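Need tokens for this chain, all 123 residues.
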Amino acid sequence: MTTAAGPMPVAPPGSPRHPLDPDPTRATKARAVFALGLMGALTGLLIGGVVPATVALQLARQARREAYASEGFLTGAAWLRRGESLAWTGLALAAVTVVAAVVVGVIRLAEAPYGHDFAPNVD
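Here are the structure tokens for all 123 residues:
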């Protein structure tokens, strides 16, 4: 293994990071989590929001794990938090829709006539 010739760069005094460290960048998964969470929240009442919301929550777990492993060089925690909250909102809206549909179905079933409805001339 060979090293580059010349002196190593020296960090200015008071600098918290080494000059060879990479620049902090926003995680691309953070934007994806936000976009999927927004789609999940907007389509949550139509039950279709369950899929993007679930994918957003899975991506958020991966993005948090990668951000932790990067030791602070991946940013975007605010986008992750917003995306996760929107995804949970979408799942809650889908659950409310399912519960409302079940309640309406049970009420309609309870109002239906019980037994056979024979003609008036049948004993």
